[in-house]
Amino acid sequence: MVEVAVVAGDGIGPEVTAQAVRVLRAAGERFGIEFSFQEALIGGAALDAYGVPITPETLELCRRSRAVLLGAVGGPRWDRVEPERRPEQALFALRRGLGVFANLRPVRVLPPLLEASAVRPEVAAGVDLVIVRELTGGIYFGEPRRREPTGTAPGSVRAIDTLVYTTEEVDRILRVAFELARKRRRSLISVDKANVLESSRLWRERVEMMARVYPEVEVRHMLVDNAALQLVRAPRQFDVLVTENLFGDILSDEAAALAGSLGMLPSASLGGRVGLYEPCHGSAPDIAGQGKANPLGAILSGALLLRHSLGHEEAARAVEEAVEAVLAEGWRTADLAGGSQTRLVGTDEMGALVAEYVQRGKAA
Ligand code: NAD
C-alpha cells in the first residue's frame, strides 16, 4: 500500500489536486499500484479551521506517508494575517519537516503547445530541461536578518539579509544534480555569481571537485545574468541546471514562460525520506471556483511522484504521454486556448481525459 498525504490547500489547489489524485488512481489500476490517499487541510483552509496554517497532526501525517501531494496555499482573504501565521508558513514548515532541500522543476515544451510559448517556436522547440534549485539555504534563511538604525541621521536604517552556504549544503544539492544529469543527457550547467559572491566561489569549487567523481557528465559554469539571457535566447543548450535558492527561484519562473502556461509546470522537492510534489503555480484566486484551472501541472507532479518516490518510470511516462496525447488531440483549458483547433474543456474534463488515456494506454 502506497500512502500519499494530500494537502490540497486554497483557491484552485483542491480543484487541480483532485485531478492529480484521479490520474494517480488510474495509473495505479493500470500498473497494479495500490494507493491510499489521506487528506488534510493546509494554508488558509487550516488557518480558518484550526487557527494555524498547518497543525502538528498534519505535519505528522505527511512525515508518515510515502509522498505528499500539495495544491497551493494563500489568497487575498489571508493577506492581512500576521507574518508568522500566514498560509505560506505552512510551506516552509512542510519543507523543513520533510527535510527536502532539492527542488526539481522540469520544463518541457510539448510539441502541441509550441505556439503558446513566450518565445518563438523555433527557439522553444525541443526544450527539455530540469532546474535543480537549492531550497533550504542561502539568503532566504541566513542570519542575521534584521533592520537597524545606521546612526547617521534620524530615521535612517539599514536592512540586512545574509547569504550563507556550507560545503555540506552545496555538496548534497550538487549530488542530486549530477545524479540526475547522469540519467539524462549528461550535461550540467551550474549557475552562480562567482565574479562577485564568495558563496558562489565556494559553490564553483565544490562543482569542480564533484565533477571529478562524475567524469561522464559534461559540466559548464554560467553566471546568473548570462543564464537569464540564455534561457530565452537558446534554451535547448540546457539539460540540468543547478543553482542556489534565490537564483533558482527567479530562473525557474523565467523558464516557466517557455512552457506556455504556469498551469503546465510540475515540481518535486526531494532530499528526505518523503518527497513533496506540487504544481509550480499558486492558488490563482482570480479563477478559483470556476472549474477552469489547468490541472496538468498537478497531474504532471503526480508523474514525478511515480518516478521519484516510487521509482516507477513506466507509470510516470504513461502519465506524461497521456498529457501529451490529450493536448495533441486539441483539448485545452482556458489558459492554453487559442487557435481554431482548440477543444475547450474545464478542469474536471481535462482530468477525466488524461485519466482515461492512462487507464487504457491509448486514446478513448
Ligand atoms: P498564481 O500562480 O496563483 O497565479 C498567477 C496567474 O496565473 C493568475 O492569473 C492565475 O489565474 C494563473 N494561473 C495560475 N495557475 C493556473 C492554472 N493551473 N490554470 C490556469 N491559470 C493559472 O500566482 P499569484 O496570483 O501571484 O498568487 C496567488 C496566491 O497564491 C497568493 O496568495 C500567493 O501567495 C499564492 N502562491 C502560492 C504558491 C504555493 O502554494 N506554492 C505559489 C505561488 C503563489
Question: What this model shows, in words?
Answer:
The protein is an alpha/beta fold. The chain has 2 domains: 1-103 and 261-364, Isopropylmalate Dehydrogenase (3-Layer(aba) Sandwich); 118-259, Isopropylmalate Dehydrogenase. 40% of the residues lie in helices and 21% in strands. The protein is built from 12 helices and 14 strands. It has helices at 13-31, 44-50, 56-64, 89-98, 121-124, 167-183, 198-211, 224-233, 245-256, 296-309, 313-328, 347-360; strands at residues 2-9, 35-39, 67-72, 102-108, 128-134, 142-149, 157-162, 187-192, 218-223, 240-243, 266-270, 275-279, 331-332, 343-344. The strands form 3 sheets. A 10-stranded mixed β-sheet has the order 2-1-3-12-11-4-5-10-8-9, sandwiched between helices. Helix 7 links the parallel strand 8 and strand 9 (218-223). The radius of gyration is 21 Å and the shape is globular. The relative contact order is 0.17. Residues 12, 16, 72-75, 88, 91, 262-263, 281-287, 293-294, 297, 335 line the site of nicotinamide-adenine-dinucleotide. The site of nicotinamide-adenine-dinucleotide has 21 residues, from loops.
User: Regarding CATH, which class of the largest domain?
Assistant: Alpha Beta
Gyration radius, rounded? 21 Å
Envelope shape:
globular
Strand order of the largest sheet: 2-1-3-12-11-4-5-10-8-9
Tally of DSSP helical segments:
12
The CATH architecture of the largest domain: 3-Layer(aba) Sandwich
What's the assembly state of these chains?
single chain
Number of domains: 2
Q: Uncertain spans, ≥5 residues at pLDDT below 50?
A: none
The mean pLDDT is 96
Biggest beta sheet attributes: 10 strands, mixed
The SS-based structural class is: alpha/beta
Structure ligands:
nicotinamide-adenine-dinucleotide
